[in-house]
Design a protein that fits this description.
This protein is mostly helical and 264 residues long. The chain has 11 helices and 6 strands. The strands form 2 sheets. The chain has a 3-stranded antiparallel β-sheet with strand order 1-2-3, covered by helices on one side. A 3-stranded antiparallel β-sheet has the order 4-6-5. Helix 1 crosses helix 4, helix 5 packs antiparallel against helix 6 and helix 10 packs antiparallel against helix 11. The termini are far apart.
């Protein structure tokens, strides 16, 4: 295995060789490298690659076309990195294998860190918050945003999006345990833009605004969530969000009663 190549798929597909960003010549070659990077160190079958690359529609002999693309990719890897033969792209009996450590792919590093943080969870909130903030920084757009759109790619994107939502929730949960409302507000607002259907993000934001004494903003945030869910899903916000609104109203009523008592 070689540690000299890094493949990024959490956003536009990018390839780095010994720290330098290199341009893969052609969309098909870039897509092959990205597809193999979905399973570093594991086989991807030829029929899967043919399906993902839509070669049955674009060529008379899909298997030969795939073989030619892989040969070109190997020649390019040798030209830009000095990787010989099948050092990185290894032929198997029924497909090809990207012969790199999982850590050479940003998506694998991300999912590994999320899994580790899930095990720590509430026992080490500061560490989990740090791990999740760093892991989320690996994202630079939608996963495989300029890649193929076949079934294997779609399944990988769904899995990565699930992991990203889990990482975001872990980050907010950890910040709640740390009583860091300023950071909760900062992160939750950004997360809602990317994932407006996630009620946990909206509830965390309303709660942090309430705890910070920013009651008008908290109510406006609740109303925006309510309007969004009614328009998009035809449902009211969850009990968690409604509970936050009740807490705000209770505080405002108590504050009003206190003001009246002082004026007597």
């Amino acid at each position: 295995m070689t540690p000299d190549i890094e493949i990024k798929i959490l956003g536009p597909i990018e390839v780095y060789i010994r720290g330098a960003n290199v341009t893969v010549p052609g969309r098909k070659l870039k897509n092959i490298l990205a597809l193999l990077a979905l399973r570093p160190g594991q086989e991807m079958r030829r029929d899967e690659l043919i399906d993902e690359l839509d070669l049955l529609q674009s060529s008379k002999n899909a298997a030969n076309t795939l073989h030619a693309h892989v040969a070109r990719l190997r020649r390019w890897l040798f030209a830009v990195g000095g990787f010989g033969g099948s050092e990185i792209i290894e032929s198997t009996q029924t497909g090809y294998r990207l012969n790199v450590p999982p850590s050479a792919v940003d998506a694998d590093r991300f999912s590994t860190v999320v899994e580790r943080a899930t095990l720590l969870s509430r026992s080490a909130p500061f560490l989990v918050a740090t791990l999740m903030a760093d892991a989320l920084d690996l994202w630079h757009g939608e996963a495989l945003m300029d890649g193929p759109d076949g079934p294997a790619t779609s399944a990988a994107v769904d899995r990565l999006n699930h992991d990203r939502s889990a990482a975001r929730e872990l980050l907010l949960d950890s910040l709640i345990l740390l009583d860091n409302d300023r950071q909760i507000i900062k992160y939750a607002r950004g997360f809602i833009v990317d994932d407006p259907l996630n009620e946990m993000f909206r509830a965390a934001l309303v709660a942090a605004l309430r705890r910070s004494g920013r009651y008008t903003e908290a109510i406006d945030t609740f109303r925006a969530a309510q309007d969004f869910f009614l328009q998009e899903l035809g449902v009211e916000p969850s009990s968690r969000l409604r509970t936050e609104l009740d807490l705000i109203r209770r505080h405002l009523v108590d504050a009003s009663d206190l003001d009246r008592s002082r004026s007597v």
